[in-house]
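Handout for the seminar on molecular recognition.
Each group receives one record of this type.
Step one: identify the two inputs.
Step two: read the structure output and locate the region that could contact iron/sulfur cluster.
Step three: write two sentences on what you found, then compare them with the reference statements printed after the record.
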Amino acid sequence: QGTDELLGLDKFTVDEENAHIVLDKTACAVCNDKPCLVVCPAGLYKLNDKGEILFDYAGCLECGTCRIMCHQLKQWKYPTGTFGVSFRFG
Ligand code: SF4
């Protein structure tokens, strides 16, 4: 099985009210490296046509990689209660 197929098995219960990861858009605007674009295994960080970071926390695997690679995040915490990812391995 490929990674995409396996990711497709996971179940996400998204807390629409509370983002568990919050970006600092001002910091993103002046960040040259933008490691988030390459390190997130779920590919949740993208660039729009203006070169700004777009981020959707809904598919987060809670791996913590962006927390380590980006020192500018306003917030990184695990989703509360029953929210977040449930890993299923097929
Ligand atoms: Fe991506 Fe992992 Fe950060 Fe979630 S915690 S946004 S899966 S790098």
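Reference statements: The first helix runs from residue 3 to 9. The pocket of iron/sulfur cluster is lined by residues 21, 39-42, 44, 60-66 (CB under 6 Å).
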